[in-house]
Amino acid sequence: MASALDNPLLFLLVLLFPLSCMGQTNGSISLGSSLSSSDNSSWVSPSGDFAFGFKPVADKNLFLLAIWFDKVPEKTIVWSAHRGNLVLYGSKVELKSSGQLVLSNNQGQEIWTAQVTNRSATSAAILDTGNLVLWNSNSGITWQSFDNSTDTILPSQILDMGTRLSSRETEINYSSGKYELRFQTDGNLVLYPTNLLTNSLYNAYWSSHTAGTNSQMIFNQSGQYIYPRNGSSNRNWAGESWSIVWSVPSDICTAITDNIGSGACGFDSYCRLDDTLRPSCYCPPNYSYFDSSNPFKGCTPDFVPQSCEPGGSGEEPRPQFRMTELPNTNWLMSDFDRYNSTNEDQCRELCLGDCFCAAAIFNGVDCYKKKFPLSNGRIETGTTKALIKVPLGNSTSQFPFQREMCFIFLEQEGI
User: Domain with 298 in it: what CATH number?
Assistant: First the structure.
């Protein structure tokens, strides 16, 4: 989602609005029609709730071909073509006479095409449901945005088994992000962290536990459901009130715990949940964000870590380093040693005297040494504290927000 949330870890949003869910075909878009990013024109649904066109993103010369809520000030984007790739001023989308919907860059090169069936479209429409459809007058819909979802699903939308949605990378980067929702062919709806470099999946952090059912995921005006195909409701997640605000998992900071991967936030950072159930990613003292435009990528030390090489800083660690604390903070993985029945001073000394130790976690009794990279960082209640090895001198920390991957129902009021 965009600025309508006033907050960003990149996530799937389920938006609940009192929209008309009956598909309408008036306002038909004829063959040969086109839109350009060089003007402010768009194709609008009959009710005016939704619009399709080029939306400026981050820069007045960069645009996203998208569908958005057109009656809210933030113009919240709910779908984008070409999986979030931005285009320059002067780019064009056209419903060609051949029945193909084609996006061309400002050089006239075709860079994205709606993958229609072998039936060519004779017209197009943006419906009051927010669904962009290509239509054949003889055989019906040949392509629709509802079958090609990005990070959002809308009322009346149906997901079949085998489909998936991906979070966006950052608040203003609509490329595929770190999280995926997969409606698996076994009938289970599952949330996964992913490795963006390899597109491989880490262990799931939430599941609907509906494996073994021949199901559809149907989002209707009274909430979100998974239905077996025999028509009986399998699970009602949201209830019947439009005002319900609901999300899964309830705390993504603690839901993601794996021996591989970084956790909800990037390596060497930690996650904190705010009052709106949205996580923020933080750097420890004397660390900075690896990518200032995307805190989700984790943090890196502002100093040269202690060396274990002969003649390196490992020979005289105490004059060069000290331990600073973060209360109620833990990196759940990255342990390489543990000491039972210690006190905090002993825990500090144990890490300072070990050139491999980047941080230590003290829970009031036991001391856990941590090595780089620190992973699965989060805020915890209780007596746990993190002891971070930093150079002698002042320390700083930064606190920007990050987006989550979870299901969220939003209240109508204030949207």
Answer: 3.50.4.10
Q: What is the pTM of this model?
A: 0.76
What is d(CA 380, CA 383) in angstroms, rounded to the nearest whole number?
9
Structure token pair of residue 380: 């915890």
Give the chain's domain count: 2
- In terms of Cα–Cα distance, which of 281, 404, 277, 402 is closest to 13? 404
Considering only 10-14, 40-44, 283-287, which range has the smallest mean pLDDT? 10-14
Instruction: Classify residue 6: in a domain, yes or no.
Output: no
232-268 pLDDT, tens per residue?
A: 444 443 533 333 346 788 889 999 988 888 999 999 9
Opening angle at CA 184, ends 180 and 188, nearest 5: 100
CB under 8 Å to 292, separation ≥6 — which residues? Answer: none
Please report whether residue 359 resides in a domain: yes
- CA separation, residue 386 to residues 158, 292, 349, 375 (Å): 45, 24, 14, 13
CA-wise closest residue to 335 among 310, 293, 363: 363
Q: Which of 300, 272, 303 lies closest to 394 in space, CA to CA?
A: 303
Q: Which residue has the tokens 């809520």?
A: 69
Token digits for 40? 């402010």
Query: Higher confidence at residue 402 or residue 136?
Result: 136
The DSSP letter of residue 47 is: T
Q: What CATH number does the domain containing 89 carry? A: 2.90.10.10
Q: 286 is in which domain, residue-wise?
A: 270-391
Distance CA 402, CA 252 (A): 12
- Say how many CA atoms lie within 13 Å of 63 toward its Cβ: 26
- Span 344-392, pLDDT tens digits: 999 999 999 999 999 999 999 999 999 999 999 999 888 899 999 999 8
State the residue for tokens 């000290």: 322
Q: How far apart are CA 44 and CA 22, in angstroms?
A: 16
For residue 406, being part of any structural domain is answered with no
Q: SS3 for 6?
A: coil
Please tell me the distance from the alpha carbon of residue 242 to that of residue 16, in angstroms, as a whole number.
Answer: 7
What the block records as the tokens of 179 is 């999280």
